[in-house]
Design a protein that fits this description.
The chain is built from 15 helices and 24 strands. It is an alpha/beta fold. The protein has a single domain, classed as Glucose Oxidase, domain 3, CATH 3.30.560. The longest helix is centred in the middle third of the chain and has 22 residues. It starts with a strand and ends in an 8-residue tail after the last helix. The structure holds dihydroflavine-adenine dinucleotide (FDA). The site of dihydroflavine-adenine dinucleotide (FDA) has 40 residues, from helix 1, strand 12 and helix 15.
């Protein structure tokens, strides 16, 4: 670690950062430094244990970011988790590997990101992937596990296995609007009921995080260095008018602050709740905000930190008539609007009428930094995805656990948007994170309707015969047939962040509020890129890691690989 100059400096060794570090350092003449605030978790059982979801929460490898009091929800703070370790959030996440609906990725191109569409990205989803055929692992209950080899990669670094199988199938077929079995939800069409792969090393039965896939097998590359327990404070700039990054100011594990130099690029991969703040600390952002903290504006880019989008996660619980031990089987269903809303056409028409007001409300909440005209355009695209292209409008996860059935659910594409901004010039200070959960009423309606859908599934045979009473919230708390109002308190008092924050450094044309261009370069700089979940312009229906890996893999202009 004696060097002080590298070709590329990658800030953040998480899900996206280690992919980029791996691909850049494949080229022997390229020197790469990765800066990471956390340490190695290679032998941390809270990480490696495939049944240990949640054990790492609130330990020293969880940033546990706090939001502001959420005025449209129950008025209290939320915790948004994120991994602080070599491997980033992939070391603490739920390991679910589910991509997006093809039309959602195509929408990225619709708003002006040339080349960002499902067809172009599919090879990069596959490039990372080492799908482990469940048939090779007889200790998995492979019954009913299906996948289409056309949509999977088998030689990439990231090992995936398939979950266990069981039959909810017959029940989903009997719903008023049946939900069909979808053998492979990773092929661009997610709608239906499915099993899904996880990022697990099947043979070793341990979590396959970004470090295990993209770093450890390559750690002896002499041109790839990682500095752990090192906090990045800001980007440093070359003298002169143009914004050319010269390196990164860091505080080392021994407490000293120093600058390390980059001859080619500085690449931010610190996640959606840190990269916008690092830009602001470096003088890239809204001058009105920066000047409050006496930070000189290097690039006037007021939408840094805007467009924050997350989802809201709730759960319903039921007794089970069977005991399930040592199983972590999860079943997912992705209903479309036509399957979720009994009166889908009317719901769509009403929402369409409200979109101009929604756009005005979001714009005014952020002082018109994002424009109502642009927001309306984005909302219309989202409306089309829901009501014309039939993307999944909710995700419902069902997990048998001991003597109960646990469910988790969320509306896939909430319309509410918030922001994140720095609160101090001190790089270690907490940021002001305000996702504005439930600001717009469609978001509550989708969340309520998903809960009603779950009650319906548990009432329908043959699955109904296996399930007992609803234990949470229970019919005494939320009566059968309750309207949205009747559900609101339970939902708003008990939801949590779905931990899918995105879009705070949005990839879009600058005229409509983008912060990075379609090569992921920050507008106004010649050599600063952002490659993490912050750049996703719109929420995806799957879980984020698959898309984050693919975004980092994608060859784009100047990617250097
Ligand atoms: P990521 O967070 O991976 O990396 C950022 C890195 O930067 C971290 O290592 C961090 O320590 C480092 N860093 C930050 N600030 C720094 C600084 N100033 N200096 C130095 N380093 C700094 N997705 C999915 O697909 N399936 C799932 O099951 C789940 N489940 C899930 C559960 C939980 C609890 C969470 C929190 C999230 C999920 N997700 C998920 C989401 C998914 O894991 C997540 O979106 C991606 O891993 C984010 O990848 P990034 O590269 O954007 O950031």
């Amino acid at each position: 670690t004696s060097h002080s100059t590298y070709d590329y400096i990658i800030v953040g060794s998480g899900t996206s950062g280690l992919v980029v570090a791996n691909r850049l350092s494949e080229q022997k003449n390229t020197t790469v430094l990765v800066i990471e605030a956390g340490g190695s978790v290679y032998n941390n059982p809270n990480v490696t244990d495939t049944l240990g979801y949640g054990k790492a929460f609130d330990t020293d490898i969880d940033w546990a970011y706090k939001t502001t009091d959420q005025e449209y929800a129950s008025g209290t703070q939320q915790t948004v988790r994120a991994g602080k370790a070599l491997g980033g959030t992939s070391t603490i996440n739920g390991m679910v590997y589910l991509r997006a609906q093809a039309a959602q990725i195509d929408a990225w191109e619709t708003v002006g990101n040339k080349g960002w569409n499902w067809k172009n990205m599919l090879p990069y989803f596959k490039k990372s992937e080492q799908f482990q055929d469940p048939a090779q692992y007889p200790f998995l209950d492979g019954s009913g596990v299906a996948f289409d080899p056309a949509y999977h990669g088998f030689t990439g670094p990231l090992k995936l296995n398939d979950g266990l199988a069981q039959k909810l199938n017959a029940t989903y077929q009997k719903l008023e609007v049946p939900v069909q079995y979808n053998p492979d939800p990773n092929g661009g069409d997610m709608v239906g009921y499915s099993l899904f792969p996880m990022t697990v090393h099947s043979e070793l039965n341990i979590r396959e995080d970004a470090a295990r896939a993209f770093y450890y097998p390559y750690h002896n590359r002499t041109n790839l260095h990682v500095w752990l327990h090192t906090h990045a404070n800001k980007i440093t700039w070359k003298d002169g008018h143009n914004a050319v990054a010269s390196g990164v100011e860091v505080t080392l594990s021994n407490g000293t602050t120093t600058v390390v130099k980059a001859t080619r690029e500085v690449i931010l991969a610190t996640g959606a709740l840190k990269s916008p703040v690092l830009l602001e600390l470096s003088g890239v952002g809204n001058p009105d905000i920066l000047s409050k903290y006496k930070i000189t504006t290097k690039i006037n880019l007021p939408t840094v930190g805007e467009n924050l989008q997350d989802q809201m996660n709730n759960g319903l619980q039921f007794d089970s008539k069977t005991s399930y031990y040592n199983k972590s089987a999860d079943y997912v269903s992705y209903p479309s609007a036509a399957q979720l809303f009994p009166n889908s056409t009317a719901v769509g028409a009403e929402l369409l009428r409200k979109l101009p007001a929604y756009a005005a409300q979001v714009a005014s909440a952020n002082g018109n930094i994002t424009k109502a005209r642009d927001l309306y355009h984005f909302f219309k695209i989202q409306w089309n995805l829901i009501f014309k292209y039939g993307i999944p409008v909710a995700e419902i996860l069902l997990e048998p656990s001991g003597t109960m059935y646990d469910t988790e659910y969320w509306g896939s594409v909430p319309f509410s948007r918030g922001s994140i901004h720095l609160s101090s010039a001190d790089p270690t200070a907490a940021a002001v994170i305000d996702p504005k959960y439930f600001m717009l009423d469609f978001d509550l309606h989708a969340q309520v309707q998903a809960a009603r859908f779950i009650r319906e599934v548990f009432k329908t045979k043959p699955f109904a015969d296996m399930a007992g009473a609803e234990t949470s919230p229970g019919l005494s708390t939320v009566a059968a047939g309750a309207n949205d109002e009747g559900w609101a308190d339970f939902i708003k008092d008990n939801f949590r962040s779905n931990f899918h924050p995105i879009s705070t450094v949005a990839m879009m044309p600058k005229e409509i509020g983008g912060v990075v261009d379609s090569s992921l370069k920050v507008y106004g700089t010649s050599n600063v890129r952002v490659v993490d979940a912050s750049v996703l312009p719109f929420q995806v229906c799957g879980h984020l890691q698959s898309t984050v890996y693919a975004v980092a893999e994608l060859k784009r202009e100047g990617s250097g690989y």
